[in-house]
Design a protein that fits this description.
The chain is mainly alpha-helical and 91 residues long. α1 runs antiparallel to α2 and α1 packs antiparallel against α3. The protein starts with a helix and ends with a helix. The C terminus is likely disordered.
Length: 91
């Protein structure tokens, strides 16, 4: 969803940049504000905190948590092999 709103803001920015520079700059505030809310204030931090509390002992979840982008999907983390999980629990 954030990619959609960023794309719309960029379209508005480029359409308005030649005639209304102030409005063009203002069109970029929405995705910046949304990014701030999701990454710093209300979206991701509370979810991460609750999931770490619930699944913090699960090695697969910790691998996922450490290798996955927080906001924009990228390449997924590869699952841990069974042997690695067993070896890590013995240590």
């Amino acid at each position: 969803e954030i990619m959609l709103w960023t794309g719309l803001a960029l379209l508005a920015f480029f359409q308005l940049s030649s005639t209304h520079r102030t409005r063009a700059a203002a069109s970029l505030l929405s995705p910046i504000f949304t990014y701030f809310l999701l990454t710093k204030a209300s979206g991701i931090p509370p979810l991460e905190k609750s999931y770490l509390k619930r699944y913090g002992q699960d090695l697969d979840y910790m691998h996922y948590f450490q290798h996955t982008s927080r906001l924009i999907p990228w390449f997924p983390a590869t699952p841990l092999s069974t042997n690695r999980r067993i070896n890590n629990r013995k240590e």
